[in-house]
Amino acid sequence: MxxxxxxxxxxxxxxxxxxxxxxxxxxxxxxxxxxxxIMQCGADETDWYPADAVMGVHMRYWPVCIDFLxxxxxxxxxxxxxxxxxxxxxxxxxxxxxxxxxxxxxxxAEDAGARYAVFHASHTSLSEIFTHxxxxxxxxxxxxxxxxxxxxxxxxxxxxxxLFENLWYPGITLLDESLALRMMEGIRxxxxxxxxxIGHMMITNPALGSYAEAAEYIMAVLCDRPAMLSYxxxxxxxxxxxxxxxxxxxxxxxxxxxxxxxxxxxxxAYHHVLRIDAHMPFADASIQTILELxxxxxxxxxxxxxxLPMLERYIAEQQKFCGL
Length: 324
Known about the structure:
With 324 residues, the chain is α/β, with parallel strands linked by helices. It has helices at residues 11-16, 21-30, 66-70, 73-80, 83-90, 95-111, 128-131, 138-153, 177-186, 198-203, 211-223, 226-229, 243-250, 262-276, 287-294, 308-322; strands spanning 2-8, 35-39, 54-58, 116-120, 161-165, 192-197, 232-237, 298-301. An 8-stranded parallel barrel has the order 1-2-3-4-5-6-7-8.
């Protein structure tokens, strides 16, 4: 099992290391880590990371996606307001351009030496982020995303393992084994599986009141779905005991979808999602039962921090609860 932590190609992560590549290697050794999972965002600077340190790459994610994948321009205009806005959001005007964009991301990941790539396969509208009354069917989202990935791979050689991460929106949640297997059967690639995000699965049960309860809930989900369990190759380890906040928002309290441009609404929704998906350490030794059950190839301490000392404290805390 390789122990990793998350980083991005954003300048704020480089700043944590004073823009000094050498400090990254020291950081890995000091914290007993094997490497990084890098999230692509903005201009690619994956090559800034040391050789052999990039084990995985988290591909870019567009949470509002189903209408674009279907080519429904009228629905896109209704959701975004203008053609310029949706074309700017996706960085593409056509599906073919979008496929090329994904291929470029995969090629960059391979060039960096990544062993795997992580995808989000889900969809929600901006208003549904607050109400949790979803208009999309998970099966439809999965089929649309599988078709996209197959188009990306058509005529494109890719040796990396492709891992699909669970969220709490329509698409891959890992709560329905038949849908999870449908995704695996639909992807035409020999090396594929799931990246189990612990915090994301916690969010699917906002009644959870402790990390011990969360471990019990997740163990029950996994043990009940043995065929799906065999496809889980990695774990994003973090905690999100944010159910009280989420339930309040669903009741109509606190943040709501706002008026304004798509970008104003998107920023508001993004702020809300950060309140739900806290990326704190999973602070209970019960996580060890999940690690033993899954026995992942990759354990990623996916934690949110503002500076390097905070990140190192969180990693040390998480390793302690993991018994590592």
